[in-house]
Amino acid sequence: MEWSVNRESDKPIYQQIFEYIEEKIAYGEFPPGSRLPSERKMAEQLNVNRMTIVHVYDELQASGLVERKKGSGTRVSTHKWGILPKGVTNWRKYIEGGSFLPTYPLIKRIRDEAKVMKDGYNMAGGELSTDLFPASFLQASFNQHAFPSNLGYVHPQGHLEFRETLASYVKEYHDINVTSSSILITSGAQQALYLITQCLLNPGDAVAIEAPSYSYSLPLFQSAGLRIFALPVDAEGINPDDIVTLYRKHQIRMIFLNPTFQSPTGGVMTEPRRERVLEIAAELGIPIVEDDPVSLLSFDGKTHYPLKSIDKSGNVLYVGSLSKVIASSLRVGWIMGPESVINRLADARQQIDFGLSIFPQLIANQFIQSPEYPKHLAFLKQELLERRNEMVLALNEYLGDKVEFSVPKGGLFCWCKIKQKVDDQKLVEEAIKNKILFMPGSVYGSPNGYVRFTYARLQREAIKEAVLKFAKVLDKV
Amino acid sequence: MEWSVNRESDKPIYQQIFEYIEEKIAYGEFPPGSRLPSERKMAEQLNVNRMTIVHVYDELQASGLVERKKGSGTRVSTHKWGILPKGVTNWRKYIEGGSFLPTYPLIKRIRDEAKVMKDGYNMAGGELSTDLFPASFLQASFNQHAFPSNLGYVHPQGHLEFRETLASYVKEYHDINVTSSSILITSGAQQALYLITQCLLNPGDAVAIEAPSYSYSLPLFQSAGLRIFALPVDAEGINPDDIVTLYRKHQIRMIFLNPTFQSPTGGVMTEPRRERVLEIAAELGIPIVEDDPVSLLSFDGKTHYPLKSIDKSGNVLYVGSLSKVIASSLRVGWIMGPESVINRLADARQQIDFGLSIFPQLIANQFIQSPEYPKHLAFLKQELLERRNEMVLALNEYLGDKVEFSVPKGGLFCWCKIKQKVDDQKLVEEAIKNKILFMPGSVYGSPNGYVRFTYARLQREAIKEAVLKFAKVLDKV
Ligand SMILES: Cc1ncc(COP(=O)(O)O)c(C=O)c1O
Ligand SMILES: Cc1ncc(COP(=O)(O)O)c(C=O)c1O
Question: Which residues form a coiled coil (chains A, B) (predicted)?
Fold first, then answer.
């Protein structure tokens, strides 16, 4: 709920809330028969005293807008609008339908908190801080170029010119060979993963994903009815032989890997392992989905080339994104792979959303070709390196004896193992009380007692304070 | 395939094609074991002589890149890259998986043709012609406003400011009352329909849709495993009593309606019917999805208010879009409905694509608030009216005795019944030969012998020529 009471107004607070709820009932946003949040919950959401809400609900009842029954809470009246008591949709039944599992509760808890938290320390979200976005570069390069005159539906695979730019881009930055007809532009890597799981696999299929991994935190694998099997990941990536074992046992049909600066561990798969993984996948005829959103953010000057760049068999579906190198709200990502697969995904995608808006494609197209882009990348890496250093310093200073971690050589995250025994849920709640957000490892499929800190979202000074605050939270639980 | 031979080049055509295919094989875009298009088909796609392709395939075979077997066509070699013959993914098995049905063949045929057709007459696509897009307005209003500095992930329901603007917008233009927390911004109406069918319904559920209708042409209903039942539609919309009949027989769980300037018929549901539909839906407790992309494009000065504006029960999910009033490549649409439903859809949507890019939202936000927007709407309506008049004239002149139609009072389409008996498929093919594209009624669920002509995509002079050409095509079949 984004509405909030206006404490400067002459109108009493309970009156403001009464009118707000009255309006939502009149608009059908709280439909007849639907249940209002409990008094306690509503008070929390609107950040007011619970007695105020008790007062409001009493008034709503007196005016006939809501009905209250012991045990079933406060419901919007069904009589009020002259409709038969039966005459409304039981929305709950619809909301509980469909194939999509909801976001995992702990993640939802953290995301909801991130939306409302003021002057806290957000080390949870996997994104850059505001000052790292190249907003002025983007605007300048956009203003210099005219809009295209044709704003009709775009090609189902994405704007052709942009796909051509991207083909050169991945050649230059990742040594990947691809032509524009084998590229599908997506709404970030997220939609790429969604399309692949929904359109190329069937419910009941077995897939292998890294544990821990970002993929583990996505309900979309389960929403698609897939059976998930874990490939344990260490600082050198997964062990290629585990693929063979999983294949023999479960006939896995697809492998999801995030080989460079993996989320959440920050690890980088070694080159011999990369080669072996490709060999095994080719031998078994299993496709690999390579999720590669941050490999350009390397701090030590080393370039880590994707699996796709050394693959000879066409077994790799390469997924990229501009979210972590430009801006996550741009929503530009891509899939590169065999033409037949790209065509199939593009066709399904027409049904889902008719393609990505042309504007983010135009903006990205201008920017990644401009001389500003390499400058921006250099600036970004330098900033992230400094923030990483700051976090490492702080971790050593305030948590040196309590956590173990290895220094990430790139990317946005620092992955820490807490030495003492902790309950992730309790740790998150205590941290929220102290206005600290982080991601607990359990949402990525690791045991309790791991945490992922994003250093990309906080200024250097804030990183120190955040880690110190976290250390105090840890002492408490 | 977007690549084409360069006829100005010194390099022989067969050599260009050889290198093109060689490249696609090397890049894994034609993976080992995959089948190349037949010689005939490849010749058609690249618009070259079939003997050229025979030559190219011979050369590819001689160089070991492809293998040819009687009866199984031309396949990319599996040996070439030193991989075991088994060592590749059988992509065909993946492509045939997933829950998405492909686009209906006749629609795909027309869309593919639209992509490559040069100097023909496209009366098929439901979109505006290039000159009707407010490109310069959009650019101007965009250049005047700075980008927001925060380009991090957007709120799952969409950019808050834009949702607030939209709440005022639908109040002003459609007399709909809604607050920003009950709005979900989508990638056009298409994604709205997708989310609703995927997230609120279960496989096997029965739904009612108008016949004929745009919904009928969407494989997404069947992809979601829904059972579809028809509500016949005439010039006054559906017959409300049909809902009761369908409900008794099939327990329909949702109704999809496009009440104003319906696609494809152009009809407008009468007011008494609108009221009765709402009454019945409320009595039975069935939600209505109201798809309303073109109601602002009224030619006779009459405003047609949506069902949503007179609904008191919160039973209507209102779906809107800027595709037909601004530009389809903007990809901005919305769903408005009960807050609990919007929250559920927004959560699922996070899994699918992490929300719409902020840029189309910013552009739309600027433009619909600007004084240019009403001017643009007035211009658009005037232009469409003139084109409609031109089409009506041409239909009367060239097809007066052969088709029946009623004059559309708004929207983009003219719906014609052909008096003689025709086969839709044959008519489409003959038309394509003569560079005319239109939509056959059968894809919208009507019997053979109906056609939908878009007058929005062609200039006035072209409309006359297109209808004349169509008349000749009709004479032939
Ligand atoms: C490993 C990984 N893959 C994919 C994504 C999705 O990112 P986007 O859809 O913004 O490209 C993320 C975002 O956090 C990520 O960390
Ligand atoms: C009736 C109707 N609904 C929905 C759509 C989808 O449009 P968009 O996703 O571009 O808003 C169309 C487009 O042709 C349409 O005609």
Answer: none
> How confident is the model over B152-176, as a mean pLDDT?
94
Q: Which chain A residue is nearest to residue B336, measuring alpha carbons? A: A29
pLDDT tens for B106-128 read 999 999 888 888 889 999 988 88
Q: Which of A95, A114, A138 delimits the end of a domain? A: A95
A313–B282: do the CB atoms touch at under 8 Å?
Answer: no
- Domain ranges, residue B276: 150-370
| pLDDT tens digits for range B202-239 | 999 999 999 999 999 999 999 999 999 999 998 899 99
**Which residue in B431, B441, B372, B373 sits closest to B405, CA to CA?**
B441
Q: For chain B, how many structural domains are there in total?
A: 3
A333 lines ligand 1 (CB under 6 A): yes
Q: Which of B94, B151, B337 sits opposite A330 (nearest CB)?
A: B151
Shortest CA distance from B351: residue in chain A: A220
Average pLDDT of the residues in B305-322? 95
Confidence (pLDDT) at B288 = 97
C-alpha to C-alpha distances, A213 to A209, A230, A231, A316, nearest whole angstrom: 7, 10, 10, 19
What is residue B86's predicted lDDT score, i.e. its pLDDT?
Answer: 53
Q: Calculate mean pLDDT across residues B410-427.
A: 96
| Count of C-beta atoms within a 10 Å radius of residue A54 | 15
DSSP A298: B
* B330 and B253 belong to one structural domain: yes
pLDDT, tens digit (0-9, with 9 covering 90-100), for A77-129: 876 544 444 567 888 888 888 888 888 889 999 998 888 888 899 999 888 88
Asked if residue A141 is part of any domain, the answer here is: no
Residue A217 in contact with ligand 1 by CB distance below 6 A: no
With beta carbons less than 8 A apart as the criterion, state whether A417 and A404 touch. yes
Judge if A310 and A221 occupy the same domain. Answer: yes
CB contact under 8 A, A358 and B136: no
- Give yes or no for residue A188 CB within 6 A of ligand 1: yes
Q: Which atom of ligand 1 is nearest to the CA of A190?
A: 9
**pTM, to two decimals:** 0.92
Which of B133, B338, B351 is closest, CB to CB, to A91? B338
ipTM summary value: 0.92
Nearest ligand 1 atom to the CA of A263 is 1
Per the CB < 8 A criterion, the answer to whether A78 and A21 are in contact is: no
In a mutational test of the pocket of ligand 2, which residue from B263, B332, B413, B454 has the highest number of ligand atoms less than 8 Å from its CB?
B263
Please give the mean pLDDT across all residues of chain A. Answer: 92
Min distance B313 CA to chain A CA atoms (Å): 6
Q: Is residue B143 part of a domain?
A: no
